[in-house]
Amino acid sequence: MTDTQNKTEVDLANAYEDAQNVVSDSYSKVDDLLNRQLDKVFSGINTANPKLTFLTSNSAMASDATWQFYVAHNDVLFQLKNLSLTSDSNQVAVDQTLIESKKQLMIIQDFLTKLSGAINAAIISSDFSQSDLDSFKSLTNLARNTITTQINNLNSQQQALVNLKLTNKNSVTAAQTKITSAQDTLKQAEDDLVSIQAGSDPLDVKAQEISVQQRQNTLSDAREKLADYTVRAPFDGVVATVGTAVKGDSVSSADIIATVVTKQRLAEISLNEVDAAKAKIGQKATLTFDALENLSLTGLVAEIDSIGTVSQGVVTYQVKIVFDTQDDSVKPGMSVSATIITDVRSDVLLVSNASLKSQNNLYYVEVPNETLSGADIVTAGSATGIELKDGLKQQTVEVGLASDTITEITSGLKEGDLIVSKTITGATKTTAATATSTQKSLFQMGGGGTRN
């Protein structure tokens, strides 16, 4: 029995060491990909604003690939490095490391898919030849195969651990069964010897043997039932609260015996169907807390419900955001507000929503139908505005992203154009005008809820 246990323990320890090696290898592969293999595909890889080194006709795919490269280089790589350095020999901790590593590799895999789409739409020019394009395609295909292999390796390691645990359990059970059987046989022989030596009546001896066997069966049944009374949590953590059940009470699967809090914190928020359609796994988020005014934490979207919840005709989806850093001042059940970054635009032309109008699904702004002097422009920006002699005309525009107060203009206006932001109706019939300007802008989508 001891030899069997020792062998199973050694085999399992070796398997978990192999699992850690697979996680470390995944980090090495991703680090080499992001910091060396893609250094010709992206410029400024160590900055907050990496860019593709080629032009592409698919601007949306290029924007997604650039943003996901930033996330991969600054967040995913950091997570994989920490996971590869985990020294905890606890089996549950290693199992969780395998799961988290696979999640991070899935984000890298999605990034490479977006990058491949941008490369396939690359524009051939004097600075970017067909040979360059073929080289980039080959590079991304090789990278995607590498990441797929690493994901398969993690899956294989997880399955190997499951199979080994089952094999070890069966081996130990078989050894225990043999011991029990041998003990029963020895006991029976000893009883037979006593009976022979005492010259007992054979019927009495048989009756006693049956009685002993029945009691042994009863003992075995009791041991099995005793094992059913042990409650185990599926993960490591700290017992935060204990339920109302006391020793001796009967409980069901719906009863709460204790609440266990894990070290990894996450926020759970609700999004309406419009905002949920924009949210994606891997997007960055900023978290603020009603009870902690000066605390702001960052995180990543880790899970989005596939099926929404309908309440009073309104559909909402639960979204889980994993904290990048753990702060002990954040407690379970605190109210949290989350801002999820769904898209980024830089160097765009903006106008206030008050200036933008629509008619028949077309957008337009009103502009002066005359040339204004510098003094007029200054007056137009004042509280009283300026009176226009020739009235206004409509200028059709195309719009892009929008927030609650401003909207991106993609065509129809240029920097420095004068537009009407407000019309003042009075005795002088004056109109106030303002000038658009180019500035950097970050459009965000917000959601709020309670962290669980």
Automatic annotation (TrEMBL):
Keywords: Coiled coil. It is found in: Cell envelope. Gene3D superfamilies: 2.40.30.170, 2.40.420.20. InterPro entries: Beta-barrel_YknX, UPF0194_transport. GO terms for cellular component: cell envelope. Coiled coil: none annotated. Its main location: other. It holds the Pfam family Beta-barrel_YknX. This is YknX-like beta-barrel domain-containing protein. It comes from Candidatus Falkowbacteria bacterium CG10_big_fil_rev_8_21_14_0_10_39_9.
